[in-house]
Design brief:
Layout lengths: L2 E5 L19 H13 L16 H17 E4 L10 H7 L5 E5 L2 H17 L5 H4 L1 H4 L3 H19 L4 E5 H5 L4 H9 L8 H4 L19 H27 L3
Helix pairs in contact: 4-7, 7-11
Length: about 250
């Protein structure tokens, strides 16, 4: 039997010191993505493009997950930053899938990663060897931002009707996201004001200057940010011209 509402997972990752309200990431999906990364010799700290190789076991797990949730839920999805690296695979498995892209300024993203890793070291939540990657590789966080967001851009260009891009700034400013999703894709979700579910204290918006060791990254960063903002502007035009929410 299909259940009403948007289903986001049977077991969601809970709160941590860096995110006291919880991550809302589907543990089953996260574990699958982590396993694919590990079997490809990588971790979540992906700072370069690669073509993931999936085994029969990976495909079987993905299919079973999709079939189970299709059978039990009218509308379902999941949140996991790692999915940026696997969107074409999921789209192949789920041709009707729609993707909400939430992008964040590169300086905010890199500062957030550095702050979180520093807190983990201070609190003794892991070995310094494991947690010190962002200090041994000064541009790692920025290369991660590039890799993930270049993948998002590529997917959005290939599937413009099945993607909707919003910036974190738009959400902070009260963008009527649920209303737009309902109008765009007919999801029938209950609309809740952004300020009731979005805690702006956890995303300060402080950017500052972005330190860069490899100057060759600067051009890529500027290009990617410009293209992301173009997608966000397209969403705004959709709101103003097609949905009438200006």
């Amino acid at each position: 039997m299909h259940r009403a509402g948007l289903f986001l997972g049977y077991d969601l990752l809970g709160a941590t010191f860096s995110n006291p309200n919880g991550h809302f990431e589907d543990a089953e999906v996260v574990e699958l993505h982590e396993r694919i990364l590990a079997d490809n010799g990588r971790t979540w700290r992906v700072g370069e493009h690669f073509v993931p190789v999936l085994t029969d076991s990976h495909w079987l797990t993905m299919r079973r997950l999709a079939e189970q949730r299709n059978a039990e839920h009218e509308v379902w999805g999941f949140k996991d930053p790692r999915v940026c690296l696997f969107l074409p695979l999921w789209k192949h498995l789920l041709p009707r899938a729609r993707v909400l892209l939430v992008y964040r300024h590169f300086a905010e993203a890199t500062r957030s990663l550095a702050r979180r890793q520093a807190q983990e070291i201070f609190l003794g939540r892991g070995s310094r060897e494991e947690l010190g990657h962002f200090w041994r590789e000064p541009d790692l966080a920025l290369r991660m931002w590039l890799t993930h967001n270049e993948a998002l851009l590529s997917f959005a260009l290939a599937h413009p009707e099945d993607t909707l891009a919003v910036s974190l700034d738009m959400i902070r400013d009260g963008f009527p996201l649920v209303r737009v999703l309902n109008a765009r894709w007919g999801l029938g979700l209950k609309e809740i004001p952004t300020e009731q579910v979005f805690d702006s204290r956890l995303t300060s918006g402080q950017r500052g200057k972005q330190p860069v060791s490899d100057r060759r990254l600067i051009g890529r960063v500027k290009t990617v940010w410009k293209e992301l903002e173009r997608l966000g502007e397209r969403t705004q035009r959709c709101v103003e011209e097609e949905i009438g929410l200006a």
